[in-house]
Amino acid sequence: MGTNGSTMLEPLRQGLPPIDPAAVSSSASCALPPRYEAVRGARRFTQSTLTQWDLHDRFDDVSLVVSELVTNALRHALPADAPHEDGQATAVRLHLMHWTSRLVCAVRDPSRQSPEARTGGEDFAAESGRGLFLVDSFSDSWGWHPLAGTLHGKVVWALFRLGPE
């Protein structure tokens, strides 16, 4: 895994329940364009990755959560006037990580704003709350963590427990 991958995983490890990082058996990630069609691409990426990992039976729940996390990142973390520093500052990236008994979906975005600290009009707050409610309902746990170092923004993650086969 490259430097970006290692840097990406570090804040996740800080924010996740204690899981031995050495036990990660597989990980995959993809950059997403700042357009709403990216949600469809994220679902396709999730489907092919889960199929490779023989976790296709979890696709419905995981896909719903990925869709919500990516939609939130595109809607709230990429304002139209956001600066484009080397094309990286505004990048949204989806990461999937598979441990023996856990699956983590993580979306990195350039905003440091908490996904739960939304203020504004009623519709805006209600829509944001609905997405987080779905993430909370379909995953076993979720959270977020600001990125440190040279990466700006945050990671919002959702964890799925994988039962014994």
Keywords:
165 residues, globular, single chain, alpha+beta, 5-stranded antiparallel beta sheet, disordered N terminus
Give structural notes.
The protein is α+β, with helices and mostly antiparallel strands and 165 residues long. The chain has a 5-stranded antiparallel sheet with strand order 1-2-3-5-4. A hairpin with a 7-residue loop joins strand 4 and strand 5. Helix 3 packs antiparallel against helix 4. It is globular, with a radius of gyration of 15 Å. 30% of the residues are buried. The N terminus is likely disordered.
Instruction: Give the CA-based shape.
Output: globular
Whole-number mean pLDDT: 77
Indicate the structural class: alpha+beta
Percent of residues in helices? 25-40%
Strand content: 15-25%
Strand order of the largest sheet: 1-2-3-5-4
Summed up, the helix count is 4
- The CA-CA distance between the termini, in Å, is 28 Å
Rg (CA only): 15 Å
Largest sheet: 5 strands, antiparallel
DSSP summary, beta strand count:
5
SSE succession: HEHHEEHEE
Low-confidence stretches: 1-8, 83-89, 117-128
